[in-house]
Fold this sequence. Notes:
The chain has twelve helices and 14 strands. By secondary structure, it is an alpha/beta fold. The protein folds into two domains: about 1-230, Spore Coat Polysaccharide Biosynthesis Protein SpsA, Chain A (Alpha-Beta Complex); about 235-325, no CATH class.
Amino acid sequence: MLEDTLERLAPVAPLERTLVLTNASLADAVRKLVPTLPAGNVIAEPRPAGTAAALTWAANLIAKRSGGESPMVCVHADWAIGDVDLFRATLIAAADAAAANEALITVGIVPSWPDPGLGYIEPGEPVRDVSIGTSPAPLRRVARFIEKPDRVRAEALVNGGCLWNSGIFAWRAADLLTEIRAHCPEVAPALDKHGDNAEGFFAAARSIAIDHGVLERSKRVMVLPGRFPWSDVGTWAALRTVRVQDASGNAPAGAVVLRDSSANVVHAEGTTVVGYGIEGLVIVSLPGVTLVTTAERAADLKSLLEALPPDVREKIARAVESGPGRAA
């Protein structure tokens, strides 16, 4: 998926202008996977400190290397993207809008269904129309961000014109750093004290997501709609959108046999899974543990972990947290 992401972005930003932020334990694997990526462009976070710290450090590096006016587009590697040309055109439009308005731009995906596993953005007052490729699109201020809702509220949000919070951002490096210093005390002191030392910065920064640390606090946040197919492959149920499905809408992988069954995600490693007469389930069978849930509840498995005995929790955590992106 990282290779796919870099290939997708190459016409927008060549590798020498691409940073990959990852955990320190994965840095060597990333460099081996993409040997043409400059080694200094792999940013190894010594400890997880949240997306606010990670993107602040990236903006700090970009400002030092290329100047604070440099546009910065932020994406994740665990996505499935359709209509890549439209995706790239949207990134370019977001970066242009960020520079023109000295704003922090987030791309909100036009929902395909009311997904309770995603956050939402409520668009506010209009700013102006911008061009995405040859089509106009409304740039609007963000009224509010909404955490993952239940299914009933998700339906109301979609019907009310809210967008999925994709985690696609665009801004100038200096604008993000200004907003960090103005609104994010969890990260700003670490930046001012350790701006030249990654170890010190990540050790001192307090963990917080960029959404909570900056975007919900800043008055300079705007949203641009994204109309390209997009799937956050962060849950097992999401694999139905990126795996090849059989004639009954099942997304199997591994030694899986399904009869009279539909709309299931079944992942088998080291064993055989047989399903008969089942519908809308997620079954993840790994060595030593099998998880069975519904597609709807698969978006909220972390709450399950908190309720399990410690010995079971450790086993199930592998199925909950380690698999969807890799399995895609």
